[in-house]
Structure formats: C-alpha cells, structure tokens
Amino acid sequence: MDTTSPHTQRWSRRLRRALDAPQHWHALDGPAQPLAEAVEALPLGPYRDVLHGVWLGHPLHPALVQLPLGCWVSAGLLDFLPGGRRSADTLVTAGLLAAGPTALSGWVDWARLDPPRRRTGLVHALCNTTGVLLYGGSLLARCRGHRAHGRLLGLAGLTAVSAGAALGGHLSYRLAAGPDRTAAVPRLAPADWIGLGAVEDFPPGKPVRVMAGELAVVVVREGERCHVLAERCAHLSGPLSEGTLVEGCLQCPWHGSRFRLRDGEVVHGPATAPQPVLETRVLSGHLEARLPGAA
C-alpha cells in the first residue's frame, strides 16, 4: 500500500521533471560543442587520464566534489556559531582553492559525453560556477569586514552549489554518465564453455561481434590466439566491434577509450573501469569462451 501523501507525490514529480528538463534543452548544443572542443584541445597530456580517474578505477570528479562542498557546508554552520568566524573564513578560502581542480576534472569528463548528458552537465557546471563566484564575493566581503554581507553571499553560494549537486547526482545516477556499463557482464557471461565459431571465421586483426549466450562479445584474433571481450564499452556502451586495434589495445570508436586485449585494462580514458575479458580455448579448430574462473 502506498502511504505517500498526494502532496508529496506531486512535489516529487515536479522535482524529477525539473531535473530531467535540461537534457531536452537543445539550445544548449550551440555553446556546448565549441566549449567541448576547447576542453579537448587543452594540453593536458597524460594528466587527462589522471583527471578522468583511470588510476582510481572510477571517475575522479565525484570524489573531488566532496572537498569544496564539505568546506562550504561547514563554513555555513560555523558562520552562526560563537567564535567560528575565522574558521568559517578559512573554510570558504579552502573551498575556493579546491574548486579549481574539481571543476577541471568535471569538464574533462563532460567533454566526452553525448549531447543529452552534455546539456545537463552544462547546467550543472553553470550552477557551480555561480556558486564559486558568490563564494568569491563572500570572501571579499569578509576580508573587508562586511561579515553580514559575506554570510548572505555564502548562503546564496551554498544554494547554487546545492542545486548543482542535485543535477550532478541526477547526471551520475539517473542519466548514468559515470557508472561502469559492463557491471552486468558477470551475470550475463556463460559459466560453461560456449562455442563462438571456427577460428578461421575470425580474420586476424579485425574485431568481430558474436553472441556468447546472452552476452554480446567482440573477438580479436592475433595469429593463433583469440581475445574475447565484452562488446559494449564500459564508458558509454560504444560498439567495440567497430573499433580499431592500436598497439595491442582495442580502441572504442565513440570516445577513444583503449583497452588492453590480454586483460581488458584501461590504457587510455575516458573509460575508468576495465573491459571484461572472457576465458578462451580452442578445440578442434573452434573457439570457445566462458566466464573467467568458472568451474
């Protein structure tokens, strides 16, 4: 039995519609495309993968967000406690310093999203940028001795970044901008050996899509050895069977993520989760595969 009141249900629906709305704002595509190209053109080198979170195994941006947001929430509380002024000022400053690398990691991820998610991400970034500007004004007012004005600007900034946080959560979980798209592979991959075809059916150096039971996989043959990986990219489900081979790696055709053939490890982002690799064997010239470690 649903015990939620009609008023609460209406409020919940309105909130969900508000969070869903930005992904349909096609007018944002105009500024989003050149901005994404500018982010992609930044000379970040290997640090781009660091900012994606490849080394961490999941996106870095959500982890960094805790730093400025935590500082500013704490500052808001200390502003109204006796003797908390200096600590509040310090936390506002620390939040502003942490906002730079946090924003950069977010922009690097955002530039590799598809248009609907990019639109929501742009509104998320605008909310947070507004919050940063308000906190900058708050710090300036505090330094000039206008504490009441500084507190008001801080509360306005906290409101803006809270709206940004709500959109960020929506982007991450409802629109699935960051999760590993291959998380279900262990449940779909065959536990017993299953035939994929004759080895000669797989041209050397050419990715080929086949079905392993319920799971779509890509087979890449190198000489007499065959590699079998989940076919959909862990980043945004790009078709790896349409990808290219680069130095022992399979590169996604959508956003350029590279996965090492022998173990699926991420060599180059934006993907952060390894691509699942199936165990293989060849019997009488036929390739078979199964979930690794299955008895």
Number of E strands: 10
Oligomeric state of shown chains: single chain
Shape, per Cα inertia axes? elongated
Total helix count?
Answer: 8
Number of domains: 2
The main sheet comes to: 4 strands, antiparallel
Strands in their spatial order, largest beta sheet: 5-6-7-8
Radius of gyration: 24 Å
Mean pLDDT: 94
Determine the fraction of residues in helical runs and give it as a percent range. Answer: 40-55%
Q: Which strand-content bin applies to the residues?
A: 15-25%
* Structural class determined from secondary elements: alpha+beta
Uncertain segments of ≥5 residues (pLDDT<50)? Answer: none
Order of helices and strands: HHHHHHHHEEEEEEEEEE
Distance between the termini: 44 Å
Q: How do you describe this structure in short?
A:
With 295 residues, the chain is of the alpha+beta class. The chain has helices at residues 6-20, 29-40, 47-52, 61-78, 85-110, 115-143, 147-174, 185-188, and strands at residues 194-198, 208-212, 215-222, 225-230, 244-246, 249-251, 258-260, 266-268, 279-283, 286-290. Helix 6 runs antiparallel to helix 7.
Describe this structure in words.
A hairpin with a 2-residue loop joins strand 9 (279-283) and strand 10 (286-290). The model has no long low-confidence stretch (mean pLDDT 94). The chain is built from 8 helices and 10 strands. With 295 residues, it is α+β, with helices and mostly antiparallel strands. Helix 4 (61-78) runs antiparallel to helix 5 (85-110) and helix 6 (115-143) runs antiparallel to helix 7 (147-174). A 4-stranded antiparallel sheet has the order 5-6-7-8, with no helix packed on it. The radius of gyration is 24 Å and the shape is elongated. The two termini are 44 Å apart.
